[in-house]
Amino acid sequence: MKLSRRTILQGAGGLAFAVANLPMDALAQAPSAAAGTEAPPILFVHGNGDYDALWMTTLWRMESNGIAHGRMMAVNFTNPTARTDDTVEQANRSSTEDQRRELAAAITELKRRTGASRVALVGNSRGGNSIRNVIKNGGAGDVSHAVLCGTPNHGVFALDDLLGSEFNGRGAFLRGLNEGDSEVTPGVAFLTLRSDGMDKYAQPDGRFIGRPGVPTNVTAEGPELKGATNLVLGAIDHRETAYSPRAFREIYKFIAGREPARIAITPERTVRLGGLVTGAADGVPTNRPVAGATVEVHHVDRESGERRGDVVHRSTTGADGRWGPVEVESAWPLEIVLTSPDAPITHFYRSPFPRSSDVVHLRAARPFTPEDKDAAAVVIMSRPRGYFGLPRDIVLFDGKEPADVHSGVPVDATATLRLSASDVGRNVVAQFNEERIVARAWPASENRIAVAELTY
């Protein structure tokens, strides 16, 4: 009998997850929520350049295990990208102090909403830096648990130059967080989740910082912390340390104090969707709302990608950048068309949404590049909660592997396909493992980009 990854992940009982590298001193870090008690409210914190929508499937899994929607929140940093030098102001980028202030405000808001005295924090990548910064600098009393997923706790690199970088293990910021015999703050239960060698930001070679062949002085163990519970999740990528079903199991178990009843997402028959339209400023992604953007939602045929019936929803964003809400069936594949000022028209082709979400955020595709000039159509495959290129994955576009998807340590969460004139107007198939999405090859001459979002 053939078992797909999707079949295996249908329930916790089918998960043969091994836990590696659990030091004995971490056993003292028992989660405070015992079986039968309510878990603390949970605040999710995204990484560098990202947004809160990446936590969508995690939120659904939490809800499917009885965590009330109102007891969870995901922060959306205004300027999510770090400065080149943390001490030097840089337009549309944030310092560690900017992030600390925004996260502290989000903690206060979640406590107000729920009436809880303490909350649990879960962060991916740079989000873990912000969590540690808040806790170490006066916020420990507000936090019960801290889960750091793929966080470069000892840097993406540890070098004697670029000392102002937040991601330099020898820089002032990380040295301050890591000083002392223990690298965690007393009174808060810490868990780190890391990859066993597939995290692009925990590599001994500097090719991911533009210095191939130069030692980074960082290893796969870089995300671990002295005094924390440190778990190795296997050969997963940087984002999968936070957003994968495997990571969800450990996050839930650590915070709730018990195994999740299920890993699979419990579907709702009718779902309600909405979100925020954001953009970029001078090429830097921001989470500031975009006004005057038009959003259309279409129900499309699963096999052909053709639109079925009339437009399901159309709205134009106001000053708050919000679009929706729209009600759709949970089995519907969708095409969402975003027409945003000063950006290419972007068609998002999405697999069905099994549950309602108010974080279906839309950011227009990047402007056309010189490499696109001879393309009749541009299609971008996007895997928001993971990266492409691992040997264990099958990535296909119309049955062929995209030219910029390579084996080994993953390079990016997107793959760009530049198609010829004969492809314009036809439907093309993007596939990641068992997930298959049909997208239309819109003509680039009309300033359109198709994005096939593989949400597995």
TrEMBL record:
Coiled coil: none annotated. The keyword Signal applies. Residues 1-28 form the signal peptide. Keywords: Signal. Residues 301-313 have a biased composition (Basic and acidic residues). Residues 301-322 are annotated as: Disordered. It comes from the Bacteria. Transmembrane segments: none annotated. Residues 277-367 form the AFL C-terminal domain. It holds the Pfam family Palm_thioest. The keyword Signal applies. This is AFL C-terminal domain-containing protein. It comes from Bradyrhizobium guangdongense.
